[in-house]
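Supplementary Text 2. Reproducibility record for the structural model of the 155-residue chain.

All settings were left at their defaults, and a single model was retained for analysis rather than an ensemble. We include the record here because the model underlies the residue-level annotations in Supplementary Table 4.
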Amino acid sequence: MKEKEKLLAYCGLYCGDCAGHSGEIAHAARILLNLLKKYKFKLTARHMFHEEIHDYDEFIDTLSFMANLICPRICRLRDKSNCSIWACCRERGFIACYQCNEFENCEKLQSMEDLHGDSCQINLRSIRRLGLAEWIRKGKRHWFGSDIDGKPDKS
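Retained model, structure tokens:
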């Protein structure tokens, strides 16, 4: 399996597109934390924006949490997982759910819908149609569903 192919999670999401994998959100949060500290923004928040910023310490706690949102390993390379999709694909020897004829109605994949909408199914259909290498090279990948911005995606 090629390096970029390893970034395909069993469910059809692509780790290479994930903010946890890239670390972009964590990096941005660290920059903001450093700037807030440098400019002693806690004082500004307390004295100038006390009505707008009610709990600055809670905000800093949340930002600190976000500064550490970096995924230690991609899905495929985890030693153990509490993910039923991971376990199912590994047990059946699948690269991902696109190799399964039941993925369209799979209850395990439906567990992803709250966060990712229909992204898994869209990606899996596309991988089947294009082939994995072509999908990674130039296929449109979905992460948060086809209508996250209120406009259906036509892929």
